[in-house]
């Protein structure tokens, strides 16, 4: 029981930090995808 309690406390304590990190990663990924798509569209438009 003691070990389980420690694991639960660690999990609940790390969840908020992981959530913020995950949000930052998602934001960066979305921005990078938008930038790449915009660049690809700009490069494809003149070719067409």
Polypeptide structure, described:
- The chain is mainly alpha-helical.
- The protein has a domain at about 15-48.
- About 95% of the residues lie in helices and about 0% in strands.
- The chain is built from one helix and no strands.
- It has one helix at about 1-45.
- The radius of gyration is 20 Å and the shape is rod-shaped.
- The protein starts with a helix and ends with a helix.
- The model has no long low-confidence stretch (mean pLDDT about 70).
Q: What would the keywords be for this entry?
A:
48 residues; mainly alpha; single chain
Q: Span from first to last CA?
A: 66 Å
- Compressed to H and E, one letter per element, the order equals H
What is the residue-averaged pLDDT?
Answer: 71
Rg (C-alpha, Å) = 20 Å
User: What percentage of amino acids are in beta strands?
Assistant: under 5%
Number of helices: 1
Helix content: over 70%
**Largest sheet: number of strands, sense, barrel closure:** none
Net shape: rod-shaped
- Strand count: 0
- Give the oligomer, counting copies of the same chain as homo and different chains as hetero: single chain
Task: Enumerate the spans where pLDDT stays under 50 for 5 or more consecutive residues.
Answer: none
Estimated structural class: mainly alpha
């Amino acid at each position: 029981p003691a070990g389980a309690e420690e694991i639960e406390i660690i999990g609940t304590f790390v969840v908020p930090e992981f959530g913020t990190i995950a949000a930052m990663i998602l934001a960066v990924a979305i921005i990078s995808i938008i930038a790449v798509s915009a660049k690809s569209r700009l490069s494809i438009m003149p070719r067409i």
